[in-house]
Amino acid sequence: KNFDYWRNRSVPGPHPWPLVGNIGPSFIGRRSTGEIIKEIYRKYEGFPFVGIFRATTPVLLVRDPDFVKKIIVRDFKHFQDNDVEVDKDVDPVYAGTPFILKGGSEWKTARSQLSACFTPGKVQSMFPIMQKSSERMVRYIGNEISISPQMESWDLCGRYTLNNVATCAFDIEGKCFDEPHPSFKQFADEFLGYDHFWSTIKNSILLLIPSSTNFFKIKIIQDQIAQKILDYITTAWKHRKENGVVMNDFIDYLYTLKSGPIPFTDLDATSRASVFLEDGYDTSSRTMSFFLFELANNTIVQETLRQEIMESYRENNNSFTYESILKMSYLEACLNESMRKNSINGQLRRVCTEKYTYTPTNPEFAKISITVEPGTSIIVPVGAMQSDPNYFESPDEFKPERFFDMDKIPKYSFMPFGEGPRLCIGKSFGKMQIKVGIVHLLKNYRVTVNQKMQFPLKYNPWYGLLDVIGGMQIDLHKIE
Ligand code: HEM
User: Which of 117, 165, 277, 307 is at a distance of 20 to 30 A from 182, taking alpha carbons?
Assistant: First the structure.
């Protein structure tokens, strides 16, 4: 009966299978949801939207960039929630993060508190931490490649971004380059549930059937992990108080919130800090590792980028500064192109919160209207749009030139950080840390693809973010 939902509303869409709807191959681990969505997106060229079923739930897949703009920016109040469900009583820390919070006042407060930590000035103040981690990474690579040039891109970039997170969020030394299995990395990976069968299943349920998470009482952030986060924060607070240390950083900021006018509990502090791990670590490290892998694959681009880096380095008295890195325009274009080609999130997910009617005005789309009912799940297929040849010619090619003039990029077809009121809070922090790491790396090493890599890449169907099965193997060579 439920499967008549879209047909009854005259919304075009593929025929669903019993129980699994249109995402069956993802359930049995054959293909990732990103790939399935891309295929449906392509098949329905010319339609402004497509009605699909995620398992038995009707989901509106939006194709028309004008409709996308209305959903995520202009008429945001009709679609202000992300399509995720976390039970506050079961998983209070995760439930208190902006991504999970429903778009009311609690979300606004959490969001504005966190945004204050990622202003340009704040990101600049974290720049020395990124530089230090980069220098440590360069030494680590030097040691490693004296044995073998081969490294796995995500492992390397994960160590680097986590080393930053450790200091920026918790004021501790991450020591992520000091040991083969650093304890802080083990903690972060446990946080994200890597290598745990049940965690993977839980994450998949959260993504595929959000409404069932309450039913199954699914908990993503376990008590012992939350306690450890709080321990890091309170230890730093105690140490600073005892020694009269003022750093004006994230830890100090959490302390000022605690003594501010709005009630701010230890749970709130834990929740805010968990954002660095939940929303900041995996996203940044994956974006960086794909970037590094693209550079390994495109040696001319890599060489051109290295020239820009070396010129800037010399112009700035043999150093890199926050401003000099921001000024590198080829670096910006290369990072954008890598994020376009490798959409790590693949989709933005919203729920309709107030009834909404849309009729396309763009003549490229069939003139069919829709009235979206409250509670309807929405997918904005960013990954599919970013590889749509109508917006990006030869989308499978890595061409940073596309991004030389941002005005030429069709609006709402490139959104690696989302857009509108729910835009990623850590956008400039994430981009800066990736750039700092890459700049130091390319100054010292040439990177090539390891011979064992097989193309086309195969993606892990069980993981919510873009994940290459077997990893991205690269070789690093010292530049003398
Ligand atoms: C390159 C790295 C990153 C990428 C590609 C990325 C991407 C995204 C995307 C696509 C969204 C969803 C936006 C939407 O639904 O419209 C998002 C949301 C978010 N991101 Fe990031 N992110 C990155 C780094 C970070 C970092 C470093 C932090 C913080 C430490 C962060 C914190 C958040 C938060 C809190 C949200 C939820 C915002 C809300 O719903 O109000 N992200 N990010």
Answer: 117
Nearest CA to ligand 1 atom 6: 417
How would you class 297 by CB atoms within 10 Å of its CB: exposed for 0-12, middle for 13-18, buried for 19 or more? middle
Interhelix angle for 105-115 vs 266-275, to 10°? 60
What is the CA(275)–ligand 1 centre distance, in A?
A: 9
pTM beyond 0.90: the answer is yes
Give me the interface pTM, i.e. the ipTM: 0.99
Per the CB < 8 A criterion, the answer to whether 58 and 376 are in contact is yes
176 annotated as a binding-site residue = no
Residue 286's alpha-carbon distances to 15, 173, 190, in angstroms, are 34, 22, 17
Closest C-alpha to ligand 1, atom 4: 283
Measured from the CB, is residue 76 less than 6 Å from ligand 1? Answer: no
How far does residue 433's CA lie from ligand 1's centre (Å)?
Answer: 14
Cα–Cα distance, 33 to 23 (Å, whole number): 7
The fold of 2-478 is Cytochrome p450 (1.10.630)
To test the pocket of ligand 1, the residue of 254, 379, 417, 434 to mutate (highest count of ligand atoms within 8 Å of its CB) is: 417
